[in-house]
Amino acid sequence: MSRDIYPDSWCEIHLGRIACNLDLALGLVPPGRKLCAVLKADAYGHGIEKVVPLMMAGGIDCIGITSNAEAFAVRDAGFDGPMIRVRAASTGEIDAALEARVEEQVASLEVAERLVALRDAGHPVRAHLALNSLGMSRDGLEISTEEGRATCLSIVKRLAGNIVGICTHFPSNTPEDLRSSADLFRDHVAWVFENSPLERSEVLVHAGSSLTLVSGEPVETDMYRCGAILYGILNPELGFRTTMDLKARVVSVGEYPAGATVGYDKGFRLGSDRRLACLSIGYANGFRRGRTPDAAVMLAGRAAPVLGKVSMNTIVADVSDIDGIAPGDEAMVFGGIADTRDSLETTERQFRTIMADLYADWGLRNARVYR
């Protein structure tokens, strides 16, 4: 018998909105280009097992992941097409992912030699040469140096028949930075083709994220790798809608006199008699301790200021000006309002981080309810 756990805090995932966001994103992809759906961090906290079928129904034929757990979850969800790891992997991680048929990035001789060994042992190998191009400086090969160019040619010599892609990750998507990075990547890709046996017609050249796609800047890429745009945290003015609501419950309501302190370390003192509600969510559920002093939640469609320090599993909200609040009522931490740039920016400011961080954190920490 299954148990109804009656979660104290939960994420409501809007699957229909993800499908609509995908359709809108595909409409932005220039003719002749592709979109790789990035499902890292368990599809930004939304659940790979639920998101993969939406991608397949929308015609997506390439998926991006980071971890082995994500790779196997994508396969378990029924996707059989190309799956690219969108970061470098250790040789042990590569070995452990063989059954999931992950296309790995290669930017070092160590990884190249391991891929050669796997190929010679009869395993299919499809690799993507990762270039830095003065970009993120984290896992791409920098071929602006003599040493980098030598390493690049050694990698290609070992894996020429197995390199199916050349990629990079742009560090900034402001117009000037994006143009500069895209031009340099184009030049580096041209150098690789001019100095190696790789054939342009047989290699997928890919760069650009969701921010690149909506930048309006022309970028020479065969494929954009997009995640954030699928979940509605960019460009609401184009019709993209947020896909996750974060909710909790009121567990108690009490009257407290002026002078009473709220939370640990007496972090807040009431200046007048107030009615306070305790909510079943805290920093263990992703309600950040570092939130701004003006943070609020929505109760009965009105903003209730959060007072005092955030506890592990509870927060306190001032409901003095909201009639009828009672234990069991739902509180909206995020969502349930018109999708506007202002609402997204307010939430990012309130929690001092970006929505992608919040989505991934909330979705991995809380129960998920699908709508």
Task: State the gist of this model.
The protein has helices spanning 15-28, 40-44, 48-57, 68-76, 91-96, 109-120, 146-159, 175-194, 210-213, 341-351, 355-365; strands at 9-13, 34-38, 63-65, 83-85, 104-106, 127-130, 163-167, 204-206, 223-226, 244-256, 261-262, 268-269, 274-279, 296-299, 302-307, 315-318, 330-334, 367-370.
Name the features.
371 residues; elongated; 2 domains; 31% helix; single chain; 11 helices; alpha/beta; 22% strand; TIM Barrel; four-stranded parallel sheet; 18 strands
Commentary on this structure:
The chain has 371 residues and is α/β, with parallel strands linked by helices. The protein has two domains: 222 residues, TIM Barrel, CATH 3.20.20; 95 residues, Lyase, Ornithine Decarboxylase, Chain A, domain 1 (Beta Barrel), CATH 2.40.37.10. Helix content is 31%, strand content 22%. The protein contains eleven helices and 18 strands. The chain has a six-stranded antiparallel β-barrel with strand order 10-13-16-15-14-17. The chain has a four-stranded parallel sheet with strand order 4-3-2-9. A four-stranded parallel sheet has the order 5-6-7-8, covered by helices on one side. A hairpin with a 5-residue loop joins strand 11 and strand 12. Helix 1 packs across helix 3 and helix 6 runs parallel beside helix 7.
